[in-house]
Amino acid sequence: MSSTAKSFSLFFLGPYPNPRDVIHCDVAIIGGGSSGTYAAVRLQDHGKNVVVIERNSFLGGHADSYTDPESGERVNLGVMEFEDQPLVHKYFQRLGVGLEPLTTANIYSESKPLDFETGRAVAGYPGYTTVAICAALKEYLEQAQKYAYLEEGFESLPYPVPPDLLLDFGEFVKKYSLEAAMVVIQKYTGGIVDVLHMPTLYMIKLLNVSVVQAILDNTFLQAGASGVSSVVYDNALALLDASPSATVLLSSTASGIRRRPVKSKRPGSDAPLMSIFTQTPTGSKLILCRALLVTVPPLIPQLPFLELSSEEKSLFSRFSYDAYYTGLVRDASLSRNTSWSNVAQDSPYAMPASPCVYGLFWTGVGDLWDVKVGADKGVEEEEVRALIMAAVQTIKRSEGMFADDDGHGQATEIVALKCHAPFQVTVAAQDVEAGFYAKLTALQGKRATWWTGAAWSQQDSAAVWKYTEEQVLPGLLERLK
C-alpha cells in the first residue's frame, strides 16, 4: 500500500472527522511560494475560497530574508529585483508595497574580478568595451524578439520547434557572435550548472525580451525603499489572514490527496470534492476542495502526497534540475563597499565550473556579504559551506589579509544558507522537439488539477505571476462557475 493510501485509510476508517478539523474551499493550493501566493491573492479577489498549504513558516519561497541582529536591518536572501511591468505594479499596489528603482547592493553591482581557483586578480577583464557588450546584447535582443511569444508560456511554443531554440546555448552564442554579451548574460544565469549546453529555449525564456530590455535600460525595480522582497509576502500573508475566504496553513504538509471526487457531507452542498489529508502544527486537517492548484516543482520525489497518473509520471520523470544556494557571510575584516566576482581565466567566457561560488557581494548592511553557489543536485550542504569558506579565504589572501587558517585572521561566519533546489527544471532538446511541452501543458485542468510555478514558466517572479494570471486562472475560474 502506498504512503498516500495509508494516510487515507487511517483517516477515513474511523468516524467522520471532527468538523473543526475539516476545511471546505473552492481551491486548495499546494505551495505558498511566488506563484502559490499570487494565485491565492487573485482567487480571493475573484471571490473564491482558498486554502494554501505551505511547508515553510513563511510565504514567498525564494524571496526570503535575514534580519541582522546587530543592526536590526533585513537583508534579501534570494529574490532581489522585479521587471517594470503593469502586472507587477498592479500586484504590488494590491499588497500595499511600493516600487522603487533598484538601488540595493546586488550581484549585478561592480566587483573585483578574481579567479577563486588560483587566487589571482584577473587583469583586463572582461576584455570587451562597454560599446561592444551593449552591441552584442542588442543583437541577442533582436534574436529573442523572434520568440517573444514564449513569454506567454510553453503553451505558445510552435511545432515543429524552431531549430535555434534546440541548439546548445554555446552554439547559439557563436552562431550570432554574442561572445561579448556573455559578460552580462552569465551574471543572470546563477544556479544553472551548464549554461553553454542548455537548450537555447530556456535561455530565451529566462533572458526574455522584457529582462534584456530592463538590463539595457537599467529599469529593474525593488520592493520599497528598503528593497527587501519578503515584505511583499509579509503583506500577502496579512491580506489572506484577514480575509474570511482564505486560510493559510504554514509549517504544514499535504500527506495524501485523493483526486477521485467524493460527495460533500456539508449541509446544502452536493458538489463533488477532492480530499486532502494535511498535517499542521495544530494537528491533522481534512481539506475538501473543488479544484487543486499545485505550485511545487513537478518532480516525482516532490509529489509523494499525490497519486500521479501514468501520464503525469511519464512526463515528470523527464525533468532534470540543478541546485542553487544563496547565503550570507559575516566578516569584519573585509572592506565594506567591496565585492568580488569569480572569474575563471581558463574557462570559456571565464565561467567557473560547477560546483562553484559565483562571488562575494557586499549587501550594504554592516559586515554582511551576499554569496551565491551553483552546484549539481547531488552536492551536499557541507560541501557548499566548505566552498564558501575556501572562497572567502582566497579573497582575503588576494587582499593581503590573514586568512582564518593562518591563525591570525578575523573569523568568517556563514550566518544564513538556503538551498533553492530544484532550480531551473528542464528537459533535453530531443524531448522538447518531440512535443514534451504540448503534452505537459495539456495536463492543465485534468482531474480538476492545475499547475503553475517556474517549471511551467521560468525562474522569474514577474513571469510566473503573468503565467498564473493569463494561462492558469482563466481555466480554473471557468471550472468553478
TrEMBL record:
It holds the Pfam family NAD_binding_8. SUPFAM superfamilies: FAD/NAD(P)-binding domain. InterPro entries: FAD/NAD-bd_sf, Zeta_carotene_desat/Oxidored. This is Uncharacterized protein. It comes from Phyllosticta capitalensis. The lineage of its organism: Eukaryota, Fungi, Dikarya, Ascomycota, Pezizomycotina.
